[in-house]
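Reading a protein record of the kind used here takes only a little practice. Think of the row as the fold of the chain written in a discrete alphabet. A record is reproduced here so that you can trace the correspondence yourselves:
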Amino acid sequence: MSHSISKILEVHIDDDCCTVTAIIEDMVQISPASSWSDPPQPAEYGPATCIGGFDINDYVLPAELEGRAMELLCESIDMGWEILED
């Protein structure tokens, strides 16, 4: 599943792994679905700070690691995003 990135907060490269911390849209439920309202309302989701990673040998890294090109790369691959707890 592709996730939309609002903002990359940090990129860390260690050996062959690139780890990205970013604000990802629609990651946490902020309001449950309601069948009692008229009309029924779907659940609402909001952004969360998440961390994910990938093997840099599989991709070409952009020159600017915290810019739009990096966001597009991360959105195009399975980053295995995990929500960071506060």
